[in-house]
Amino acid sequence: MGVRRPFRPGGMTMNDMEEYESMSLVQEEDSTREGVEQFLSEEAVTRAREGLIKSSKLGWEDGTLITAPPGVSFDVGLSYEDVFVVEDGEVVTRRGGDGGSESNGMVDDAEGGGGAVGGGPESLTLPGKAHFATSVPASTMFDKSYFDDDSLFGESSVGSSSDEDDDEGSLENSAGDESVARRQVVDVTNEKMASLSLNDSSTVDEVDLLLSEINDTLQSPIDQSRKSMESAAPVIHPPINVEKSNTDNNKSPSVRKSWAVTEYIPITTNSDFHTLLPNPALTFPFELDDFQKQAVLRLERSECVFLAAHTSAGKTVCAEYAIALAMKHCTRAIYTSPIKALSNQKYRDFRNKFGDDVGLITGDMQIGADGSCLVMTTEILRSMLYRGADLIRDIEWVIFDEVHYINDSERGVVWEEVIIMLPDYVNLIFLSATTPNTIEFSEWIGRTKRKPVHVIRTNYRPVPLSHNLWAGLKLHKLMEGREGFNPKGYAEAAKALLPLSVRAAQDDKAKGVKGKAAPPTIKPSSKPGSQQGSKQDWLSLARYLEREGLMPTIYCVQKCEEIANMLRSLDLNTAAERSLVQSFTIQTVARLSPVDSNLPQVIATCEMVKRGIGVHHGGLLPILKEMVEILFSRNLIKILFATETFAMGVNMPARSVVFNSIRKHDGVQFRELQPGEYTQMAGRAGRRGLDKVGTVIICCFGSVPPDQVVLRNMLTGSSTKLQSQFRLTYTMILNLLRVEDMSVEGMIKRSFSEFATQRALTTNDYPKLLTRGTKTLSKLDEEFKSDSDSRIGAEDIEEYYFACKDVLSWNNNLISYLLSSGGTGGAGGTGGGALVTGRILLVTSSRKQHGYVRAPAIVLRAPLASTSKSGATSPGTTVICMVLLPEGFTLSDDDSQSRDLKLGDLNYVGKSYDRNFVIHEIEVSHIFLVSSLKAKIDSKVFFQESSKKGPGLSLSSPFAGAKSIKSRQDDDPFAGMVARGKKAPVQSKPTGLSQEAQLVDEAMSHLIKTEAVEKNTGVELLDLRDCAKNMHQGNQEMEFRHSFDALERATALAREFQSHYHPNLEKHYTTVDRKETLRSRVMALRHLLSNESLQLFPDYLQRKSLLQKLGYIDENDTVCLKGRVACEVNTCESLIVTEMVFEGMLSELEPTEIVALLSALLFQEKSDEELDSELPQRLVSSCERMRGIAVYLGEKQKECGLPVDPLEYAATSLKMGLIHVVYEWACGVPFSSICELTDVQEGSIVRCITRLDELCREVRNCARVVGNPTLYRKMEAASEAIKRDIVFASSLYVA
């Protein structure tokens, strides 16, 4: 006997001829013999021997050795030693794995699997290489697992589909010569498969396999993707999640490219860096850190970079080098910042470094707009992109600073808009604090821009932080650097806050036990429970910081002015420093008018900074904010009381940072600081090159310290994830409808919020499955039509199928309601008696094992309620039944599993009265009819609960695998022995089998009788309305009765079809069921891949419907005049402004009244909404009309389906608190006088008026679009009326 060769064609010796000729004699078809003989030709055998004699590489090159099958890649092929091994002097086939395990399907070696193709005893498995099947009968010439696609199509789709065209092209090229080498064999196989009839078992298996694949991919792939991303622990430099092949030149086509690249350029010494960068665009006076070197090298290659590092780690180096590259290349670099204050600061820094080639563009000024580096806010860049400004063509780099600001609920959407709309030739740089999902965010950026993003992240902090609690007038260390949390320091702080008597008692106890002297105690000056701190507390802390050399210090507090006033007695500056401060304050105040220079806030701030104390909060005048920032950067302010805004937007480190509380108000409620918020503010501690450690102090002015668990989580917890805040606005929709390069659907699809969904669609190969499903469905439809002659008497099978689906749906709804309501109605798990043991049902499950249609069944076990992990109980969804199988059913020889079962086991197949039955677990959704008949049976004979659960143990049923008493008695070695002195019990004759057979016969007689009744007159339905008594609440009874009436009508309709009584109903029904199930899956896939599956698509349709109703766009989605006007407004609700313009409200008012009216659209703080009686009546009436417009727009949005309350929408959009203030300011009243009209802080007033100037320019543009010269001139006059004095004082950074 020769040894079989695993190669095809010709993979055998001449000695194999006799064996395979004998095998062919038992084949039923002559074609099979021909299929074998074509591989036993003399030429084929000769080629096989040559392939074994030659080396693998030579055989592969001259075509003797066949190349890899579809989806598998070789380096050079297989050698003789790979296939054969000498054992005991005999050459045998090499087996894979330790135990010669068999495997069906192909396992990619990149996944480390040792699989086999084809399986069976003749399978061959080679570790680390491709796997073949060695058996060669023609019927199994190619295992179907070779092909990813359904063989009905006659084509292969090897490899993973990708959403990028270049990947698809490379994938086709990688197939290359391999597909040519095997094309003839594949075509022959596909031709044979395509010629199979519809009812052929092979075709059925292919369709069922495709349905299984689609069902697997449709089971929450997005949730699985998100869970995998959330479960991934953040690392400093995470590796790329890409499987690599053995060689670089032969990569597996199934490897998918990752857009987030974490590979580092190898740099071992400083000379390596200078070798890679011989002519840098910018040199630095200090040695760069490793992450900075990596960023610079990536920028030199014109690659996108995401740099995530801690505060003050040196991320600005990356931005400065990009600016230098733009200047070197004579292009432009755009630096965007989240807030205007940071833009002004960066403009000053870059101008000092790069000279006059740096410009600043804000809402109210443009300086050096032709410079190579332009600093602006992200909103300004978005406006340029929508307008298509010429400036965009010259951009090489766009730098997004503080990109974690994308989490802002109001303005975070702007970042996503800009990233999506930027041209592909623009390189992007992202600077951010450390975030746990940097890879995910970079993956989204790369996928959106079609270019890799190099992620450079580091947890390295140049100056480590020391976290301490301030208690008992001393510091207690909680954590320092990368050390863990110190519970001992927390315990010492808690002890220091105890009253003196309690501490003395504890010390005496400790002294008596350990014999140690008690430490000196200091009584805290604050009252127990006081968290704000008294004047003495703050003075003591300030003196401690001064004494320990921990200044300058930033105090992160809420009531800045109040606490700063407690330290009036402190003077922290020397005489020389006071002189410098006084000189600078005089220069600053000189920019103001004499009246404004005497404002109380100006006088108080100037006096405070002279003593080395400053405040920084949103209510401070902008010019005073800049004065404090500059003085603090010059180390002329030793203590700075600031809010979170300072730490968020201004990069000015200090020696130490102090928190007076770890709680904050987020606009809705008070809560603890999140780890990311704490890190952002605490990161200001520690000046690089000046301090060895940055000190962070958490004040404990109360009687107890903050909770230890909260502190531990805040200090050691992960930072805030980057989350999408993308939402649709009317201005965005109108702008996108005007441009051609981007659609609204495209914007939604590319947003970060849809990234997980779109990636899941690509990962699960939905387009590929849709193509396969569509082709298979078309094939099934054609074959179903061609086989119409075989369905005599069942011509209406399709109509009957859909009628049955209705019956199944109504039954499922009604029974599910009965089961879910059974707990309150006392019905338990039987659905009010509907599914009680012995109830006779009609069930339909055509594609289940041993499928059946409207088959009679007896309930053996009612549905069991299940308990979730949270303790909630949910009704059961399955019922155990004895089902009558169709006539002519025979158990196949391959079904050995069913033959090994016995009565009482699930899936047992039995026989009685020449008919077969099966014990099945039936889904409630498969119940076709609940009859009024019941049979008296012993359900324990037919089904035992332990047979379903198997031998495995569980916490819910720890004795599930235990043997029954009977089986234990049978296993008892002393069974049958009688104790001495006892008489043997009288045993009855064994009648178990006859009784069991009698019970089976009785049950089968019920089922057969029911089948006959259904075919003749129809089984009587159980009135489910009687089962639902005492279960209803409210209108549920009427709805239940309506549903049951619909069930009765649907059942009567199904019985009218002649297919209902056809003897071969199961065969025809299964054919239609398989075809229509595939059709529903294809429709689901098509929906997932369409725009309708987008999360915001319904919101888009509703908003677009509103715009059509209001006349902003026409039925063709063309932007009309009102839409073009609305596109000009970006600072507030564009619809309200547009309606006011078209109603002529603004044209009727004076310029002073117009700006007062428009201020209601910009002011956001809570204040008195009552309009002052001193206002002109025309202005008051205009305010009411504007409120009416807002309510009208809210009603229209509600009519279109948007979740908007009209009154709430009007109250949110309009705030009347500053109308009187702005009106007086526009009339020329001094700033000091208008401040007396409101409780709003000076800084908030200035911020509102400066934004109002921008809105005036936008309304002026609206007048230009409409063609209203009167309104145009009035808006110019209104803008001039408010642009004066302290409100529009020039910035200290710019001048």
Automatic annotation (TrEMBL):
Composition-biased stretches (Gly residues): 112-121
GO biological process: mRNA catabolic process
Localization per record: Cytoplasm
Residue ranges of domain Helicase ATP-binding in the record: 296-453
UniProt key word Oxidoreductase: no
Residue stretches of biased makeup (Low complexity): 515-535
Protein name: Helicase SKI2W
The species this protein was found in: Cyclotella cryptica
